[in-house]
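Final report, Chapter 2: Outcomes

The project's central promise was a pipeline that accepts a single protein chain and returns its three-dimensional structure in a standardized token representation, suitable for archiving and comparison. That pipeline is now operational. To close this chapter, we reproduce one record exactly as it appears in the project archive, with the input sequence first and the structure output second.
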Amino acid sequence: MIAHLRGRLLEKRPTQVILDVGGVGYNVHIPVSTFYQLPKPGAEAQLFIYTHVREDTLALYGFLTEKEKALFEKLIGVSGIGPRLAVTVLSGLEIDELGAAIRRADTQRLTRIPGVGRKTAERIVLELREKLPAPAAEMAPAASALEEEVVSALLNLGCGRTSAEAAVKKASQDGAAQEFEPLFRAALQSVMK
């Protein structure tokens, strides 16, 4: 499988490029974000490649960063999302903004992307929300032992980790007593809203 290409850019369009590598022209599908960051035709470029193989198709999808490629691979892992729609999703929002929208469960923001309806946006959030790491700026300081205990209790009730941690953090910030029962009740109320 092809994982990386470096060569001379022959053609450049918003959704695809042709990259000459050792005399072979590779047609590579790209998101719009990659298009704007690539140099002009004739210059050297390199792309991280995802090779999509099916019975009737062999297609290459290229990205400037491994982070963008990793998010693409997560998107195509969502049921009902193929490579073309995943490229459209990556073209619709900057990668950090897309990750934040998924973590916040902002389906309204996701449905503004052409080709993404309400159900597809909900599936993306449901299947990827827990899989996307929070950026360093969003990561909270380590939780206390008491907060971890409350998070664990919420997990046992079927709450997702991200939701449980956010609820406990909110309950602590809202001034809940730093004892198990009051903190647990306040976090549970926050989850149920």
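Archive annotation: The chain has a mean pLDDT of 88.
This record, like all others produced under the grant, will remain available to the consortium after the project formally closes.
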